[in-house]
Amino acid sequence: MINQKAFLLNSSSPNLRTKTLLLVLLSIFFYGCASKPWSHCDDKSCELDVIKDIGYEKAEKVGHIDDFYELRNLCDDFYELYRYSDAEHCLIRLETRVDNLPYMKLGRYHKDVSAFDRTDYYRQNAEASIRSAQLYLDYHDCNKSLGYATKGLNPFQNSYPPTMEDEYRELRRLKGLSAACLGNTSAAEQEIGYIRGISLGVLNRTDDDVKNKLAIADVYQALGKYGQAENELRRSNAWSMTDFLMVGASIYAAGAAGPNSIPALDYLQAVNQATQSGELPKDKEIPHLYKLARSYLARDFYNSSVGMYERLFSRDDLKSKFPDVYYAALGDYALSLRNADQSDKAKEYFIKAIDFYERNRNFINASSSKIGYMSDKFEVYSAYIDYLIEIGDHGKALEYAERSKSRALVDSLAAKEKFGSRSSKADSLINEIKILEENSFNKSEDERSMILSLRSELKAEAPELLSLISVPSINIADMQSTVPDNTSMLFFSQSVKGLNVFALNKDSVYGHMVELANIDTLVEEYLEKIRTRSDDYLSNSRALYDALIKPVEPHLNGTSLLITPYGKLHYLPFGSLHDGQSFLVEKYSYSLMPNISIIELLSNRVVQSEKALVIGNPANDHGFSSLEMSELEASAIGNLTYRSKTLKGEQATETEFKNSISDYGVIHYAGHAYFNENEPLLSSLVMAGDDKNDGMFTLSELYETNISADLVTLSACETGLGEVRSGDEVFGFTHGLLFSGANSVVSSLWKVPDEETGLLMLGFYSNLESMSKSEALQQAKVFLLNDINPHPYYWSSFEYTGLN
What we know:
This protein is α/β, with parallel strands linked by helices. The protein is built from 38 helices and 16 strands. The longest helix is centred in the first third of the chain and has 24 residues, at 115-138.
């Protein structure tokens, strides 16, 4: 049987794909009466594609209540098949239907709203909210999960209809888990109190209620209070063996003294006995074995953990029936083997785990918290990189460190639907890749081949967009070939023991483990001393130089550096590090890079315009103060740059900026910047508003913009900052500008006084006439250091990112 989706996507001609799709839809229309519209399908996923089209159309109409339930069932089917993107869109439609029920649409006190309408809304709102809260909890988007659990509970006002006890309990459980996920212990424990208050009727046997106990134990588990979770279960014998096992080994065993303790042995024996007796079906054994194995790993009982994972991987049905357990167990098994000194076998499972992560991003993002207790995928990368450095394979270690950074970018932008592109073909290719990647976990070889083929097309059409949606594969030889002459790269990555630093040049690569658990504290203390202009900064500066630069300095060639930071090092002004004789900026010109893969991308860009767009002190309606020195700075920069256009005050509108940004080779912005810690994509450059735009040019809008600038300078406070996400990806304007088309960016790490900022910028632009960009900024800094003020606060804030 032909796989319709594969055939459509594999068709070489877009017109052929369109015609084929029309034929399929026509066949569904004409033959729908004689057979089911999905009778051509050979799997459940294909069937759901057809049902989705029909169901969504019906859902738009206010019809029979069966249509409502069909839509809800469709959402459930998507979720069970790991089609999480479709599940999310389906649940949004379901929520819209719920919000349009008579109770909400007409108003609760409307004369035409009956008691049935009220009860119907309570139930449908609760069930839809439960599904959405669980989905976002799986995504680890705990704020959204909390919001949906709260929405489901709002109509109850701490009471509930007797027939909706189960829904009320589940919403309280999900709200407790969401609060625990956000680190709000008191809020989570408040939900436990509400669950305890659920009565069992006239006998009021609340404490003996099995469902209550299981829900309470779940919340305690999420809080890490395993002893209290276990106590909840031990207080009554009212629950069956299956009820107990469904809570998971992580509750029962994690609080025990060791793998040979009576509770742990009791649990394992209970699993075996229940499986043999048939009380626990054999395929239900797998999640419990995994949780016990993970419990051993979390408590450093590595040999016991290895034994449990061996039992798991001996099961032929592990991957097919429990893909979420399979995914989690791959990385955990590798970590267990590594710590149990079984390095050869650990290497095999490290490679399997990382390969699986990179090929199944959408499945993993949604499954990661569902199984519970799972290791961070970046911990697996880090442990494998450490192992490779220990055995002397520094080149392979750097390859995986680069893949880890690229993976972090893809994860960070996973929720973004739209990117700026230069062609409709690129948009179409991205959409086709996403369809194939999102909608199938167990992909066929044909589908995998199609994904590779589509990625190759996208790389040729718009390489910068490919790097935003997939992890590129780059080997050490390719990395070395991209490093410019007279230049070395300093590449920092996560280590289980602290931090890894690599020195890379055209001839060699060297890796070193910085075994300092307190490196973040050292960086924070140093930054605090700089920002407060303390005179006691030099000892911290030397300590950081000795830890980060000195171990690899013998392997650095040339007088120019490319630096790829990690974690807190993104906030570190590298030029201010001191070796006891001089600052690093006095010895090297340097540029920052988000990763190595971007070097090739930047090298191939061609800038068509030499014109400059200069923006200074935009007017705003958002409460930001006027920056008179920024206006003077903009005027001076405009006079220095060739064929410039200067926008100031009311003229510096977001609309004019958006309309002009693609036409200029140099862009200079001197104004306010706003960084949103909770929603980094909403961080903004502040400009004047008008009837078309609000004056807040967001990072999300930036990713949808096409820029063709050789240099973008952000002379605003803290524009170089961003939020460091898991795996090290940083959301910030520098990163967004590079991936939107800018070749290089100058940005700041803290607010510098206007006078010093103006002097630095004038020196930088004057130097560009005879120097490369990194050298121009280096010499501008050295001038301020020697002739204005030697304290790093005044000259080291601005950093250059990009190639020369």
